[in-house]
Amino acid sequence: MDCPDCERVTERTEQSLCPIQDRALRNVRQAYEVWATAFGSISPTDFLNRVAGLKGTGRNAKEIVEFLRQHPERWK
Amino acid sequence: MEVTQTLIVCEKPDAAARVARALDEDGDPGRIDTQGVPVYEAHSRQETILVCSALGHLYAVDSKTQASRRFYPVWDLEWMPKHLVDKKSARLARWIQVIGTLADRADRYINACDYDVEGSLIGYTILRYACHGADTKAQRMKFSTMTEKELKTAYKTLAPQLDLSLVEAGRTRHELDWLYGINLSRLLTESALKQNRGYSTLSTGRVQGPTLKFVVDREEEIRCFTPTPFWIIEATVTRDGQTYALEYAKEEISTLAEAEQVVKDCKESLLEVEGAESRNIQQSPPYPFDLSGLQSEAYRHFGYTPSRTLALGERLYLEALISYPRTSSQKLPPDIGYSEILRGISKIAQYRTLASKLTVQPSLRPIQGPKEDSAHPAVYPTGESPKRTLIQPEANVLDLIIRRFMAAFAETSLRESSRITLKRDPHRFFLRGSRILREGWIEFYKPYTSDDSQTLPELKVGDKLPLTTIQAAQKFTEPPPRYNPSSLLRKMEDENIGTKATRAEIIEILYRRGYIKNIRIEATPLALKIVSMLDKYCPQIIDPAFTARLETSMDNIQSLQTTRSVVLAETLDYLRPIMLNLIAREDEIGAQLAEVVTSQRIAALTFDYSCPQCGSRLKIIRSRTSGKRFIGCAGYEKGCRFTLPLPQFGTLSITSAYCKLCGFQLVQTRTKGRRPLTSCARCYSNKTMKPGFVAATTTPTARPRTSALVEATSLVKD
User: Fold this and answer.
1) DSSP label at residue B162
2) Which pTM value belongs to this model?
3) Which of A20, B21, B388, B596 has the fewest Cβ atoms within 10 Å of its own Cβ atom?
4) Are B60 and B80 in contact (CB under 8 A)?
C-alpha cells in the first residue's frame, strides 16, 4: 500500500507499511480487541464498517481500515 | 559650571520619549530628528541628557567569512551591524550613525533598555560597537514600569556597570541559535533547491525543531487514533417539579452487557437516599500573572494568540499602564507600592467600588506564586489611567491585569460542595451540587471566573424517589486535543525550551513557514516530512531534552556557573558531526523535501470546493499576460470557463472555512500592517466589483488562452 498522505519516509517495514501506517495498524488491531470485549463479540467486518464511520477515527487509521476491508487476509 | 552630557540608550522610541519626559526638569524635553532618527534632549541643573533609542537589535550575528549566503556549514561568527546582515533592516544604518555621533559628544553612558537578557544585550552591543567601546564605562538603569516616579528613582540609583552576566547569556543564546539555525536551515533549503523544483524557505532551529516535533507527535497520535466504545448511565430524578441529572457511581462502563444490566436493574425502580454529605472548600485567589499566565488567560477569554497578547502588553507597558510584561515571576513584592496602585485603580470609574474595598483593609498581602524572576516582578497595573482611549484589545488585556491584581489581595472564596447518595442495591447514584458561601476573590476577578453552582433538592436519609429516566448511552473515546497557540506555548514552557520572550515568535515562525496551520494546530505534510527526516538522520536536533539542557547552560552563564566560551565549544563539538552526517545525505534529503514542497505548494493553490459548472478542481491562477490572479477551473481544457475574482494585493491563502451564505471556500488575504481579510470570492462576484479585484466572468473571451496561464505558485509564500 502506498503512503500518499502520510508523507513519511518511504521506508518499508516488514508488513510493507510505512512506520505511521504500521502504528495505525497496531492501533486498529488493539481497538478491535477492546470492541470485541465490549460487545461480547463482533466480526472484523462489522468492526471495520463501524470504525470507518466514526468521527474520531484518524486519517491514517481510516486508510488502514479501508486497506483491511480490501485485504482481509492482512487482518491476521 | 561645566555641564555633563549624558547619553541614555533605550530599546524603543516610545520608551526613549517617556524616559526623557521623566528626567527633564520641566517634563518637556526637546525632540531632535536627525535623518529621521528621534533623539530627545532633557535638561537638569547640571547636565544635558540625550536620550536615544534602538529599534530592537541594531547588531546581529553573521558569518565572519565573506562566503556566499548559501554556503554551509559555517562555524566562524561575529557581531555585525544588522543592516549589513539583513537587507530589510537598511534603515538601521542611520540609527547607528546618529547614535555614534551622539556618543562622541557624551561624557557618561547609560543603558536603559528593558531589564532582561535581550534588553541588556541590545544596550551592550550599541554601547560597544556604535559608541566605540563605551560598554566598559556605561551604567545600567533598571526599572519595571515606565511611570515617572520609577524612572526618576531608577536614574538616581544607577547600577555602576552593565549587567555582564545577562549580556553573556544573551550573546551565547544568539550565537547558538545562529549556529543551529543557519546551518540546518541552509542545508534544508539548499538541498531542496538543488532538485530544481523551485525555491522555498525551509528552516529549523534549536527551539523550532523540538517545538515542531511536539505538534507532529500529536498529529500522528490523532491520525492513528482508533476510537473504542464505552457506556455511561444517563439517569434523572424529579423532585418538586424540578428534574435533576444523576451521576452513576461508575463513570464509564466498558461492556455493553454490564451497561444493559444496570438499566435493567434500575428501570422504574425507587431510589433510596443512603447518605448526604457536604464539605466546604476554600479556593485561593489565582497567582499574579507571569507572561505565560497572561497569554494563556487572554487566549482563553479573548482568543488572542500569545504573540498578540505580548504585543498588547508591551504597548500598555510603554504607556506606563502596566509593569514589564516579559517576566516569569508570579510574585508581587511590597516595594511596588500596593496601596498607591490600588488608590490609582480606584480613580478609574469601573473599578472604584472594588478597589475601595481593598484600600480599607488594614494590611495588604497579595497571594504569591511559586515562579520567580530576579529581574522583574509579576505583571501588575501601575494604577495610572489611560491618557487616550484604548482600542478594545488593549482595554481587554488591561482589564484582565487589573482584575487579576485586585483578586490577588482578596480573601479566599468558600464553596460548599454537596453529594447525595441514592441506592438501588447493588447500584449507587450521586446527586452533586455546589454553592458559593463567600465570593472572596471571585468578586474581583469577574467576569473571568465561571460559576457552576447547582442547588440540590431537600432530601434526608431514607427518603425515596422514583427514577424518572435511565438509559445506557454509548460513547467513544476521543483523540487527544490539538494544540492551540496557547497550549503549545505552555508545552514549550513545561519542557523548558525557548524563553518567555521568544516562544510566541517561534510559533509564529512555524505558521509562516507553512509547517502548521489553523488555530487548532495541524501539522502540514511538510512538517511531517521535516520532522521524520530529522528524526531519522539527527534525532538530537529535535530532542526537547537536549534543547532544555542548553537552556540550563545559558541560565548557568547568567548565574556565573559556566562561561559563554565553554558552552559554545561544547555546542560546536556536538553540532559538527551532525552537520557532516547530514551533508553526506544531502541528495536524499533534498529529493524528499522537494517532493513534499511541490505537493504542498500545489495543495495551497487548490480549492477543496469543486467547480459548480463541471465538478473539476478550482485553482488560484495568475494570468501570464495581465499578471492578474483569479480563481479558475482545472476543466478549462474541456471547455469550462468558470472563473471568480480575487484581491490583487497581499498574500493569499485558501482557508478551511466555508461561506455561510453560499458554501464556497473562503480566501484569506494578508497585507503587511493590516488585519487579515477573509472573504468569499463567489459572493463577491455576485455584487458590484470594487477596485483591486478582477471581475468574474464566464465568457470565454475574458480569460486568456491556456498557454498564457501559469499556476500562481508565487502567490502563497512567506
Assistant:
1) -
2) 0.79
3) B388
4) yes
